[in-house]
Amino acid sequence: MIYVFYGKEQVLIQKELDKIQKENHLAELDITEYSLDTDSLKNGLEDAETVSFFQEKKMVLFTNCFFLTASTKKGLIEQPVTLLEEYIEHENPSTILVLVVPYEKLDERKKIVKALRQKGIVKECNQVSNMNAYLKELFQGYQISKGTLSLFQERVGVHLELLEQEAEKLKMAAWDQKEITEELVDQLTIQTIDLDIFALIEAIVTKQKKKAMEMLEEMLKRGEEPIMIVIMLANQFRMIYQAKELYQSGYTEKDIASTLGIHPYRIKKALEKGRRFENERLLSLLDQLASLDYQIKSSTINKRLGLELFLLGL
């Protein structure tokens, strides 16, 4: 069998690899990995064509298969793709061939991509299709309320690797009781800068200048760079504007997430904030942030003072 897993979420790709390994009862010795940014496809295919002497099945894993994308990444060795085309037509039934592409999408114009879609199983690993189900699975075997689960996601964000890391931390702390509480989530999880930025925007939206200044002070105390806060604010306001424009044009939340390449949860939050802003106001804020970015980088204003004046002027 031939599998292709592509996308930016390494966590999802690893889950697919683990699933194949478990279903086929493969030990680590039954898996051979070739990194195709430095290894030759030819050598890997020769391995794939060889019958396993120890098990009924073996896995040949090709990682960094950039030749399946439109990427022009420098320093990659040229791969003999025609050999892979030939293998697809006459694959070894005792070999599970897996190609991993750490890239957002495949180049569908390529003959080899079409052949892989026709003969193999191709799966996108860019984002979770059902975040609630994914989060529940993270805490399988533990009691956790719907509200606590929402709090966990709000604090940690949507980065899968960080979600898994923070979930493991909570499960270790609740090993005896097997219950994840809101207090535990508040005490142990990392609050991401994304959440801080959304909270700061919420204070801006509701014109709570004092609260906004207090939040800025707290972020600076934690070591966040003012220029990074400016960039993050601009990114969030830009996303709010784009999501609002597309929604007003008739796009659904799912369509907007797909068009902008942003997780649906973040789009939902952006649209909530967007209802509080006129489009012209969002464009004005983006102009102000672009000007502040230039002033800070050209050293014409103190970076902290510039941010404080921006917030006071809202």
Task: List key phrases describing it.
alpha/beta, 15 helices, Rossmann fold, 57% helix, Helicase, Ruva Protein, domain 3, Zinc Finger, Delta Prime, domain 3
Architecture blueprint of SSEs:
Layout: E1 2-6, H1 10-23, E2 31-35, H2 41-49, E3 58-63, H3 81-89, E4 95-101, H4 111-119, E5 121-124, H5 131-138, E6 143-144, H6 146-156, H7 160-173, E7 179-180, H8 182-188, H9 193-205, H10 209-221, H11 226-248, H12 253-260, H13 264-274, H14 279-297, H15 303-312
Parallel strand pairs: 1-4, 1-5, 2-3, 3-4, 6-7
Fold and architecture overview:
The chain is of the alpha/beta class. The chain folds into three domains: 123 residues, P-loop containing nucleotide triphosphate hydrolases (Rossmann fold, 3-Layer(aba) Sandwich); 58 residues, Helicase, Ruva Protein, domain 3, CATH 1.10.8; 120 residues, Zinc Finger, Delta Prime, domain 3. The chain contains 15 helices and seven strands. It has a five-stranded parallel beta sheet with strand order 2-3-4-1-5, with helices on both faces. It has a two-stranded parallel ribbon with strand order 6-7. Helix 3 runs parallel beside helix 4, helix 12 packs across helix 13 and helix 14 runs antiparallel to helix 15. The chain is globular.
